[in-house]
From TrEMBL:
<feature type="domain" description="Cadherin">
    <location>
        <begin position="511"/>
        <end position="601"/>
    </location>
</feature>
<keyword id="KW-1003">Cell membrane</keyword>
<keyword id="KW-0479">Metal-binding</keyword>
<dbReference type="GO" id="GO:0016342">
    <property type="term" value="C:catenin complex"/>
</dbReference>
<dbReference type="Pfam" id="PF01049">
    <property type="entry name" value="CADH_Y-type_LIR"/>
</dbReference>
<keyword id="KW-0812">Transmembrane</keyword>
<dbReference type="GO" id="GO:0045296">
    <property type="term" value="F:cadherin binding"/>
</dbReference>
<protein>
    <submittedName>
        <fullName>Cadherin 11, type 2, OB-cadherin (osteoblast)</fullName>
    </submittedName>
</protein>
<dbReference type="GO" id="GO:0034332">
    <property type="term" value="P:adherens junction organization"/>
</dbReference>
<feature type="domain" description="Cadherin">
    <location>
        <begin position="174"/>
        <end position="282"/>
    </location>
</feature>
<dbReference type="GO" id="GO:0000902">
    <property type="term" value="P:cell morphogenesis"/>
</dbReference>
<dbReference type="GO" id="GO:0005509">
    <property type="term" value="F:calcium ion binding"/>
</dbReference>
<feature type="domain" description="Cadherin">
    <location>
        <begin position="398"/>
        <end position="493"/>
    </location>
</feature>
<dbReference type="InterPro" id="IPR015919">
    <property type="entry name" value="Cadherin-like_sf"/>
</dbReference>
<dbReference type="GO" id="GO:0016477">
    <property type="term" value="P:cell migration"/>
</dbReference>
<feature type="domain" description="Cadherin">
    <location>
        <begin position="283"/>
        <end position="397"/>
    </location>
</feature>
<dbReference type="GO" id="GO:0007156">
    <property type="term" value="P:homophilic cell adhesion via plasma membrane adhesion molecules"/>
</dbReference>
């Protein structure tokens, strides 16, 4: 590019902001040039064109003047947090043909650190997040130079990049928390205080710094103006005496208070100040006081105070006497510290003359608020009743002095005269008289109890013509002297220290009562006994608890319980006393019958209840006996009564194994076939049975010796059928024989020896002598029952 051709056009592209930068050019015609590109961003063109010559219609040559461009400000959004740098704008020169020979240079605030430029394209980017509150704008200089020689192709151009504000700062109350005061009873709308919040955002851009105030806490007592932040009272007649302090929370919100705005809060403590809105009030309408007649003027008689709920000078009360018959006798002053009305004696009072006075006192506020005059009156009245108390005054003589004459040489006992004094008190006590010895050293005179003065010896006028003596009148008062007690005796139980207790009594409580203040406890040696416990009631009484459910006089009839008693005197005294607990005999109503130690003997006479119980038992026993006899009579007797049961009806159990071959008496098979058992005769089991009485007709002797049970049973059946005295057929006992036609065969071991058996009992021969008999019976198959009988006989 050549200088004579002028400077190329430098264009700055402002992207993403939608803001046009207006540049003014000093043209010959005063026109402005604004270059628009075919994209969303506007470009500002700035160029020095080659000087051209133009020819007008009249052939005049026109020369175009050089244009000077003025750069305005550019904008970039603060707090951008995107992944790519923000494009601020673009520099472009008309001499840039796109071949890369042009290099763009950026200098100024933040150049190279915050703002970087692409030296080929001229794009300017912000590489860091910008904060408008830290720096609101940056001044930069842009220039296009030749890439190979770094020679400027256009003069430098300065421009400003302003950081565009966003709402990233909440409102803050820099002076909070606040303290405010407002008079009580203020009218609605009275201004209390104005709170102000600040917002660091740009107040000239958008609503980021447009604040609106609202109250979050403190309603309905106070309100706040949304635009100014002035807090005002919202309720009338707010009374400090009811509530003095209020905590109010104020919120300031930006964005005009709309949703999405940021907010901040502050606290305002509002205190109600006092006004004189309460009149003074005496707690009592009538006060009672007393004054002794011997009090001197100026002494205090009593005090009273009116209460005013207001503070400071609003609560001051002034007192004055307004009426009463004692206004000339008493006076009223005010204590400057306690603000009490003090009644003082102004003149002497005499009990015998007047015994009571009445005063009326008024208390009023000296400072009255004119706004609350209609709430008055701001004063109160009270009546004081003052009674005069009698004092013990000395007797008073009727005359202030007495003069008497007496002849000289008068004998002793001569009457000189009488003096008289009286007690002015209401009690009118008697008066006695005496002559002080210092006024009558020689003891010439004496005085009686009624005031009569007499001589004690003759008087001599020549020696002493006048005698001046004094007489004293003294009230006779009874003096009662009481001897005070000191703690010189240890405490002890009363004389009746024995307790009677039933031996069947459940756990009960026995109390010990004393009028003085004592403490009780069990002696250490019985503190853990299992019979009784003690509980001190802390009111000079103690309770004895019975721990067991019952006692026995036979075991122990008297219990001794040592109790330790302590007093609270000075010096403290203590003692251990023994409480005797005697176990007594009581009736069902816990009435004590006897507490003496005596053997238990049944009483000679029985009570009606005991007799009834005994008779009832006898009747029940007789009824049981009669019932038992009746049942036995109704029971059917068997047709045949045996003295003993037939041996065949029982299973006989032996505890021994038998004696083997030597034992020939263990069991006799003949017992099973012995018909004598039906006749009541039972043979011995330890010997071979023998017939001891004739057999019945029809029974041969061979049957007795037969071992065929089947034949025996059939014979017995035939006898039973032919014998009318025999029991019926169904009463015949069942024996262990199933009959000859049974498929199971006989279970009898006696018959098994006569039948063929596949069992081999030869091993019994090796079992020893004890099983020799059994081996002979079963070990040989051809052994017959007769052989067995022969062996048994042998």
């Amino acid at each position: 590019m050549r200088k004579q051709q002028g400077c190329g056009l430098l264009r700055v592209l402002l992207l993403l902001l939608g803001v046009s930068v207006v540049c003014t050019a000093a043209l010959g015609t005063g026109s402005h040039r604004l270059d628009h590109r075919n994209h969303k961003h506007r470009h500002l063109g700035h160029s020095l064109h080659k000087h051209r010559q133009r020819t007008g219609k009249e052939g005049q040559v026109l020369h175009r003047s050089k244009r000077g461009w003025v750069w305005n400000q550019f904008f970039v959004i603060e707090e951008y947090t995107g992944p790519d740098p923000v494009l601020v704008g673009r520099l472009h020169s008309d001499v840039d043909s796109g071949d890369g020979n042009i290099k763009y240079i950026l200098s100024g605030e933040g150049a190279g650190t915050i703002f970087v430029i692409d030296d080929r394209t001229g794009n300017i980017h912000a590489t860091k997040t910008l904060d408008r509150e830290e720096q609101a704008q940056y001044t930069l200089t842009a220039q296009a130079v030749a890439r190979d020689t770094n020679k400027p192709l256009e003069p430098p151009s300065e421009f400003i990049v302003k950081v565009q504000d966003i709402n990233d700062n909440p409102p803050e109350f820099l002076h909070g928390p606040y303290h405010a005061r407002v008079p009580e009873m203020s009218n609605v709308g009275t201004s209390v205080i104005q709170v102000t919040a600040t917002d660091a955002d740009d107040p000239t851009y958008g609503n980021s710094a447009r604040l609106v105030y609202s109250i979050l806490q403190g309603q309905p007592y106070f309100s706040v103006e949304p635009q100014t932040g002035i807090i005002r009272t919202a309720l009338p007649n707010m009374d400090r005496e009811a509530r003095q302090e209020y905590d109010v929370v104020i919120q300031a919100k930006d964005m005009g208070g709309h949703m999405g705005g940021l907010s901040g809060t502050t606290e305002v403590r509002i205190t109600l100040t006092d006004v004189n809105d309460n009149p003074p009030k005496f707690p009592q309408s009538v006060y009672t006081m007393s004054v002794s007649e011997d009090k001197v003027p100026g002494e205090e008689v009593g005090r009273l105070k009116a209460k005013d709920l207001d503070l400071g000078e609003n609560g001051l009360v002034a007192y004055r006497l307004i009426d009463g018959d004692g206004m000339n006798v008493f006076e009223l002053t005010t204590d400057s510290e306690t603000r009490e009305a003090v009644i003082k004696l102004k003149k002497h009072v005499d009990y015998e003359t007047k015994r009571g006075y009445s005063l009326k006192v008024e208390g009023s506020n000296p400072h009255i608020d004119s706004r609350f005059l209609t709430w008055g009156p701001y004063k109160d009245e009270a009546t004081i009743k003052i009674s005069v108390e009698d004092a013990d005054e000395p007797p008073v003589f009727i005359a202030p002095s007495y003069t008497y004459e007496v002849e000289e040489n008068a004998p002793a006992g001569a009457v000189v005269g009488r003096v008289h004094a009286k007690d002015t008190d209401a009690a009118n006590n008697p008066v006695s008289y005496m002559i002080p010895r210092y006024t009558d050293l020689e003891k010439f005179f004496s005085i009686s109890e009624d005031g009569l003065i007499t001589t004690t010896k003759p008087l001599d006028r020549e020696t002493q013509a006048w005698h001046n003596i004094s007489v004293s009148a003294i009230e006779i008062v009874r003096v009662n002297i009481k001897v005070k007690d000191v703690n010189d005796n240890p405490p002890e139980l009363a004389s009746n220290n024995e307790v009677l207790m039933c031996e069947t009594v459940p756990p009960l409580t026995y109390e010990m009562d004393h009028r003085q203040h004592f403490s009780f406890s069990l002696a250490p040696e019985v503190a853990h006994n299992q019979n009784f416990s003690l509980t001190d009631s802390r009111d000079s009484t103690a309770s004895i608890y019975v721990l067991r459910k019952g006692f026995s006089r036979l075991t122990q009839d008297v219990y001794f319980l040592p109790i330790e008693i302590n007093d609270n005197g000075f010096p403290p005294m203590s003692s251990t006393n023994t409480l005797t607990i005697r176990v007594c005999s009581c009736d069902s109503k816990d009435t004590i019958l006897s507490c003496n130690v005596e053997p238990y003997v049944l009483p000679a006479g029985l009570s009606t209840g005991a007799l009834i119980a005994i008779l009832a038992c006898i009747v029940i026993l007789l009824a049981i006996v009669v019932l038992f006899v009746a049942l036995r009579r109704q029971k059917k007797e068997p047709l045949i009564v045996f003295e003993e049961e037939d041996i065949r009806e029982n299973i006989i159990t032996y505890d021994d194994e038998g004696g083997g071959e030597e034992d020939t008496e263990a069991f006799d098979i003949a017992t099973l076939q012995n018909p004598d058992g039906a006749n009541g005769f039972l043979p011995r089991k330890d010997i071979k049975p023998e017939l001891q009485f004739p057999l019945r007709p029809g029974m041969g002797r061979s049957e007795a010796n037969s071992v065929d049970v089947d034949d025996f049973i059939k014979t017995r059946i035939a006898d039973a059928d032919s014998d009318p005295t025999a029991p019926p057929y169904d009463s015949i006992q069942i024996y262990g024989y199933e009959g000859r036609g049974s498929l199971a065969g006989s279970l009898s071991s006696l018959e098994s020896v006569t039948t063929e058996s596949d069992l081999d009992y030869d091993y019994l021969q090796s079992w020893g002598p004890r099983f020799k008999k059994l081996a002979d019976l079963y070990g040989t198959k051809d052994c017959s029952i007769n052989d067995v009988d022969d062996n048994e006989d042998s």
